[in-house]
Design brief:
686 residues; mainly alpha; five-stranded parallel beta sheet; disordered C terminus
């Protein structure tokens, strides 16, 4: 045991001993004290849910056992301030260095930068590493040095980088323990008595821990992977990797996943196995989507709170807690949606295809605020992951430049026969429909009365009628989109005429509160005006500037959303009738003076809309993720800190020929919709 000069390895979401750059650096430096600090209050409204805490509890136990076998225990601390706890551990152990691996959500970016500043000021050497991505977000840019704005261009760049991701590191042979005699562990409580009985059921299906993650990876690569291209959409069987919770907690390195899958791809290519090659390509794209979620989160730190396309802030969401409750409880009257929501509540898990179906239904059919759905996923998923969940819900909501078109509704009946053709998935989770013939399993409301009676089903009694008819939802969505474009155009016109400060200022409506019946907490922040911009500088940690000021910079532009060239006004469909639409949907009708102003200053165009999206084809498995650290970071190299430039980030979308924005009819009809809102100008509420 070393009595001084040891190094602290700060574990967070990297709960493994192999391919852990921070742990490897600590072992090379000498004696090591491994520390995990449980400070969930720092996460604000994103306090971990029950099943996520159950996983963390078991994963930490597994990590502690592994570290003890290597020579040192894991020190655990309960805190409300991670940095204060780190300083206490430094003082009690005599540590002179701290090593940790990067995280990319906005809260962690700010906390980690603050930790480096405070600890360095105390004379402590601090080094951080990339253990979670193939490439760091700031290393993947276009030819102009700007971040990519569509997934396809981003992923193409990743695959064509001049250097490959590093090969995964082996676990240390042994660890020299630091002196922890004055640094006792705190007992961490992750579940209460009421939660223990429910959590006990999870252990039947899941095995947290880094060695179990490796077993799951091996099982997938040697089994379902080869037919992944064919079976990935099937919800009624185990066709995906089930790696996502292991990857979220860092129990398996994404570098390792990437490299082992690539080795399999080379092997199948040499055999001439085209199906296997195609499966690997699709699985690697799902890894790329995980990379992209971190990329988006880093470049747009408020993507988990606000739409990236500015016009969506004007969408008239339906604030209906009755709808929300029916969706949560699996009582919508649409069997595939209800089966998915009941599986989620019972197991903390959903197949990626089902996630798309239930979230699309939430946003497009029920038109509930997408942040409600994302927060509920956060509270109930085993693999709840802020960056991935934000990307998924923004995609479904049509708020990404290459996301799913907002006016597209996925009919759960048709989706059911695609991913559950025999009805086995629905029957498993909806026993009240178990006797219904496959012909009617996904649309029981169309079944003859004799069939329903034979199956013991009384619609509206033991199984609900559809909460909203799809045809009615389609009409309502069209009307809501008309109202959105009119409101956006009115706001833009008012800004141009000098009668309004512009988009994103203090005139913006208050955020939609989370429903209280499920105890969702929201941290309400004051509305702020245009931010002051920082300057670019380089330090050890790269952190987006998220400091806002009430002082308005008069020389800054007033709108956070721009058009490309020429006419910058919004386009309104020719059948716009906002007052009628507002009355039909229970929304406030628009002022006629505003409507006249809109119509005078907008061109009207009508186009047929076709569907453009990548998530469905690119990655059906939300479990796949990716890895790595760049060459320099193995030794804790310098990581630049970036504060945004004064220019609007949305400028780069104007001439992006490689992205969906250049070809999508929807974006041609509404050219302003492919202008991503710059996070440097996002308000603090929305």
């Amino acid at each position: 045991m070393s009595s001084g000069g040891c190094s602290i390895v700060w574990f967070r979401r990297d709960l493994r001993v192999e391919d852990n750059p921070a742990l490897a650096a600590g072992v090379r430096a000498g004696a090591v004290v491994g520390v995990f600090i449980w400070a969930p209050e720092e996460e604000g409204q994103y306090y971990p849910g029950r099943v996520s805490r159950w996983w963390l509890k078991n994963s930490l136990s597994h990590l502690d056992s592994s570290l003890r076998n290597l020579g040192t225990p894991l020190v655990t601390k309960r805190s409300t301030d991670s940095i204060s706890s780190l300083l206490e551990v430094v003082k009690s152990t005599g540590a002179t260095q701290i090593f940790f691996n990067h995280l990319y959500d906005p809260l962690s970016l700010v906390r980690d930068h603050r930790a480096k500043e405070i600890l360095t000021a105390q004379g402590i050497t601090v080094r951080s590493y990339n253990s979670d991505l193939l490439y760091e977000p700031w290393d993947v840019n276009d030819e102009h040095g700007q971040p990519f704005t569509t997934f396809d261009s981003f992923w193409e760049r990743c695959l064509s980088m001049p250097y490959d991701p590093q090969a995964p590191l082996l676990p240390p042979k042994r660890i020299i323990p630091g002196d922890i005699s004055r640094c006792p562990s705190d007992t961490l409580v992750f579940e209460d008595e009421l939660e223990k009985s429910s959590n006990a059921l999870l252990a039947r299906a899941w095995s947290p821990g880094w060695s179990n993650a490796n077993k799951a990876l091996t099982t997938f690569i040697n089994g379902p992977l080869i037919e992944y291209s064919v079976n990935r959409r099937k919800a009624d069987s185990a066709t995906t990797s089930f790696l996502s919770p292991h990857l979220h907690f860092g129990e398996v390195s994404v570098k390792k996943v990437f490299h082992l899958v690539r080795i399999k791809q080379v092997f199948w290519a040499n055999e001439g196995n085209k199906a296997g090659e195609e499966s690997v390509n699709l699985f690697l794209k799902s890894i790329g989507l995980r990379e992209y979620s971190r990329y988006i989160s880093f470049n747009h730190p408020y993507s988990h709170e606000r739409p990236l396309l500015g016009h969506l802030k004007f969408f008239p969401w339906v604030v209906d807690e009755g709808y929300f409750k029916a969706w949560r409880q699996g009582r919508t009257g649409y069997p595939l949606v209800d089966a998915g929501m009941r599986e989620l509540w019972a197991t903390g898990w959903l197949h990626d295809r089902i996630r798309v179906v239930v979230s699309s239904f939430f946003v497009k059919v029920l038109q509930l605020p997408w942040r409600w759905g994302m927060k509920y996923f956060w509270d109930t998923l085993l693999d709840a992951d802020l960056e991935s969940d934000a990307l998924g819900w923004q995609y479904i909501s049509g708020t990404l430049p290459d996301g799913r078109e907002f006016d597209r509704i996925d009919n759960p009946q048709f989706e059911g026969y695609k991913c559950d053709p025999n009805g086995e998935y629905v029957r498993r989770w909806l026993p009240e429909l178990a006797r219904l013939p496959t012909e009617w399993i996904h649309h029981p409301w169309n079944a003859p009365e004799s069939v329903l009676q034979a199956a013991g089903i009384e619609l509206g009694s033991n199984y609900p009628l559809p909460i909203v008819e799809i045809d009615a939802a389609t009409v309502r969505l069209e009307e809501a989109l008309i109202q959105m474009w009119q409101l956006e155009a009115a706001s833009r016109t008012a800004a141009e005429n000098g009668t309004e400060e512009g988009l994103g200022d203090s005139t913006e409506t208050a955020p939609i509160a989370f429903p209280q019946d499920i105890q969702m907490e929201e941290r309400h922040e004051p509305v702020r005006n245009n931010p002051l911009h920082g300057t670019r500088r380089y330090q050890d940690q790269m952190v987006p500037s998220m400091t806002y000021s009430r002082v308005r910079a008069e020389d800054e532009e007033t709108s956070s959303v721009r058009n490309s060239a020429g006419d910058s006004r919004a386009e309104v469909p020719t059948n716009a009738n906002a007052q009628q639409n507002g009355q039909q949907n229970g929304r406030e009708p628009m002022d006629q003076g505003v409507l006249q102003n809109v119509n005078r200053n907008t061109r009207q165009r009508r186009n047929n809309t076709t569907t453009t999206f990548w998530l469905r084809n690119a990655a059906e498995d939300s479990t796949a993720e990716s890895s790595s650290s760049t060459r320099r970071e193995r030794d804790g190299g310098v990581v630049p800190e970036w504060s945004p430039q004064a220019s609007n980030f949305s400028d780069q979308f104007v001439d992006d020929e490689n992205g969906i924005g250049a070809t999508s009819p929807y974006l041609q009809r509404h050219p302003q919709s492919h202008q991503m809102m710059s996070w440097t100008r996002l308000p603090q509420t929305g």
